[in-house]
Amino acid sequence: MSGAPATPTPATSARSRRWEGRGVARLLVVLALVLAGVLALRWGEGPRLEDGARPWLPAEHRPDDRLGLVRLEIAREGVATTEELLRAADHIRETLGAKWRPLEPPAEALAAWTDAHALLLMPLSQHAALQVRMTNTAIEDAVRALRGRLASPFFALIGAEARRDPLGLRSLARSASEEGVGTRGGPTLATDRGDALRRDGRVLWLLHAAEREHATWEALTEELAGRGITLARPQVEHAAERVPLSDAATRLAWLVAGGLTALLAAAYRAMARPLALVIGTGLLACACLRFLGPWDALALPWLALAVVGAVAVATIPGRIAALGGLLLATALVPLAWSPIPTWAQWGFPWFLLGVGMAGVAQLGRLFAAPTDDASPDTGDVHWTRRAWIALVLTLGSGAVVTTRLAPETFAALTPSDAAFSPYAPDRIVWAWSAPASSSEAALDTAALDTHGWSDALARSDVRIEGPGHLLLAPDELARRREALGALGLADRLAQLEHTLQAHGFRSAAFGEFLRGAADEHQSPSSRAALQTPLARWIKRHLADEDGQVRVRTSFHLPPDADALPRLTHHDGTPVQLFGPAAFEATLRPNLPSFVVSTTLVQLWLAMTLVWLRHRDLRRALFVAAMAVATLVTTSLLLVPFDVPPRLAALPAWLWLAAYAAMATVRGLERPRDVRGTALLALLPVVPALAFAVLGIPEWMPLAAVLGVGGPLAVLWGCVVAPRLLPAPPRAVPPAGEA
Amino acid sequence: MSIARRPWLCGMALWGFSSRWTLAHADPSRKLQNRLELWANFAGRTQNLRAQVRLRRESALLERPLAVTGTLFFRTPDALLLRDDDPAGISTWIERGVLRLVPHRADVPAPELPDRHDPASEWLVEHLVALFAPPPPGELGFPRARVLVPPGSGYRLEFAPLRGSLARRVVRTMTVQLDPVAGAVTRIVLAEAQGDRLSIDLEDHRQNLDPADIAGPFEALRSRVGG
After folding, report:
1. How far apart are CA A734 and CA B150, in angstroms?
2. A299 CB neighbour count, 10 Å cutoff
């Protein structure tokens, strides 16, 4: 422990006496810190961290991480073939056992189901077209065209369809059959077992529940690599690419603690005060990590900022320390009303944390050298013309920047979804059916919804995936039977048979589809579907919570989709969509107004605090103007670095505004303290550098804002502000006032 | 020294049999190379081609096999048109790897084809065009097919999708008969996986006609369907 030597003036002699008299207090603080450190290490279960991608998403919008995708790809052409890819999938399926899940409806089972029920699944709106296709002339033309196609070498490609459906009726029913579950025309083909095969036969996707041992996957990967097939698990690989939050938290703690200690030691040319400050706030931060939480990648930087803010408050004159502490503690309170759950959760606790942290940091003053906490240089300030001009210019440029504000949402932070394509979580949204008391009832409700949705989305590229397409609710089934009966189907089938024979066809070779359609004992009911091989795939879409069953229907959005589908349930209520894209879509329209209003609330809070402390509205307004000036100049400086304003950085912007307010308050109090000014300017750079090097994507925007904005805030607050708003000379206060 | 008649006759018979056996079991790769060279002899000179065709399809859908006549047009590098003479028939048109089936009657809708990258469609398009197109210089290979000389008489080549290819779910084999002198393709037999068999007999080959004569049918189709 060392301090600057006291000068032999009467005032400093008095301070020296007080400095020496603090020995007991210092000893007690050191003992308390040691004790707290020991307790912190003994108690608790370690830091309560919550690691995971997309920490900004509310739970209901998060993709189901209990299911994992496996991607098999032919690595070397000629060595492996599609058949071997399918065999590899069989092998994985055997290894996974009950953990395997059908990603798509098994192709054979689906074809059998849709063949048997296609006419019933055909929407009533298509019945007029159906009637036209079953006139004598239409049947004659269709059979003639079929005969014409037989001469093409490519008949094999279209023949199976012609054999099953010589009149092309399936195209009318398509929206209600394969198209409905997205297996036709989509980027993949369902295999007979229920996996998905890319159309070129080189990539196959499997779905599985939970995780098997890492060793099992390693063995499978190695085995398949020998057969020219690569095995990838995109979720696991993305998670592995991401720096584990526990590692990042440890490094962040050491980097911030080390950086602050070095900076404070260089500024004070002493070790006692820096160590007391860093250890005191660090211990409180560790206690928060252990006993509060859970802390995710969005919340953890707040803790680091709380420590840095508390240290900054401890370096400003004690007379304004309470105001400074409150300014920083209220910085993120406006986020309590944000739609991001983590921010909303920490908004108010942050205030308490900030106040507590600043309070602990005040203990560092016990170690301050007598000159470090000298009396303020100035008192009241008076307004100059320059100050008015600066105020108008700042607020004007702030308004201009606000009108041009187009912040990015969190989407830019999500990892590339190429490895997941076409099952990228960011391109899939889902809707839940109304809860029902049984699976059958829930599926009936989903069927009513889905048939309406497929009509609404018939002209879009959105793929609907869910069991509702394959089913009909009892009332709807009766209606469709009646409508089909009115078309005289049996008579038309007899005419078709006659025409086929007349053109040299064997009528027995046709009509699986039509025979199935004419069978009155077949019905596409939910009960029947749950007794087919499709049941496992259907059950994957059911969620049972306390006996209330709901059906999940997913919408696969095309890559260029910029808006979500607007849908209603069968009873007319609007459909609420879930998923990352749905959350983004709810954020995006309100984003500029949310950012601006949050910032305004934060500035208003800062102004109120300054006004309450000084009872001077003009000073409060000036402090807010310096905060706005900081925000504007920071955003302008970030433009050349191509750092767009990102929502992820909003806490950093708010904290920066509060920091600028605090720096202005301090600058107006002590305009001539160059060392303190430099220290304040460099303090935010410490967490900025730590955020920049730790590799957590959510922290990079914070690093840019803090690294550039921190020194700017101090430049405006401690260098420019005192020159715009000079204080009148006042008498030197009596010794010992500090 | 005299040679007895019986050993002499036996020796001659043995020599004759062994030479015939040797001929029959000549090195198959050599035989395949000869056939490919014969085929390349004609195809390598093709700038354009017109031939009369007779198509015959045997199918489980039909009471009796279907037989129609038609015309095949080819022009380098990759345009092929197979047009049958049935007024209710269809034109099979391949150009730049794109397949189109165009019914002769304008009021009949074109059948819906699978995706361009469907393995079977891609394989058939590639190999049907390759039968008439000049092979790349110094190359006689078909990397996406298993090519062999089928047993039996005649100058024939058999093409099959590679083992494991999804194209095998539609096409089993494509057998080609060559003219023993000129090397022109005289017959294509397509064995389909579902059991159908399509044979296309080509005759009256007219090679390297005036390009305008060949362009006509292509342009007529293009003006009808666009593209």
Report:
1. 114
2. 21
CATH number of B27-225: 2.50.20.10
DSSP A406-452: --B-GGGGSPP-TTTTTS-GGGEEEEEPPPBSSHHHHHHHHHHHHHH
Phi, psi of A230 (to 5 degrees): -95, 140
- pLDDT tens digit string along B27-66? 667 888 888 888 988 989 899 999 999 999 999 889 999 9
In chain A, residues with a C-beta closer than 8 Å to the C-beta of B92 are 152-154
CB A306 within 8 A of CB A360: no
Q: Which of A80, A151, A162 sits opposite B84 (nearest CB)?
A: A151
| Structure tokens, A648 | 């992820």
Q: Which of B61, B64, B66, B118 to mutate to test the interface with A (most CBs of A within 10 A)?
A: B61
| E strand map for chain B | 48-58, 66-75, 79-84, 90-95, 98-103, 145-148, 156-161, 171-178, 185-192, 197-207
Q: Is A163 on the interface with B (CB under 8 A)?
A: yes
Contact residues on chain A for B114, CB-CB shorter than 8 A: 157
Q: Whole-number mean pLDDT of chain A?
A: 80
Instruction: State the DSSP code for A9.
Output: S
User: Which residues in A lie closer than 8 A to residue B64 (C-beta atoms)?
Assistant: 504
Query: What mean pLDDT is predicted for residues A692-717?
Result: 88
The verdict on a CB contact (< 8 Å) between B66 and A506 is no
Q: Where are the domains of chain B?
A: 27-225
CA quadruple A82, A86, A89, A94: dihedral, nearest 10: -150
A498–chain B nearest CA distance, Å:
14
Look at the pTM and tell me if it is higher than 0.90: no
Range scoring the smallest mean pLDDT among A70-74, A380-384, A492-496, A688-692: A380-384
Task: Find, in chain A, the residue whose alpha carbon is nearest to that of B60.
Answer: A509
- pLDDT-derived band at A117 (thresholds 50, 70, 90) equals confident
A153 contact B CB<8A = yes
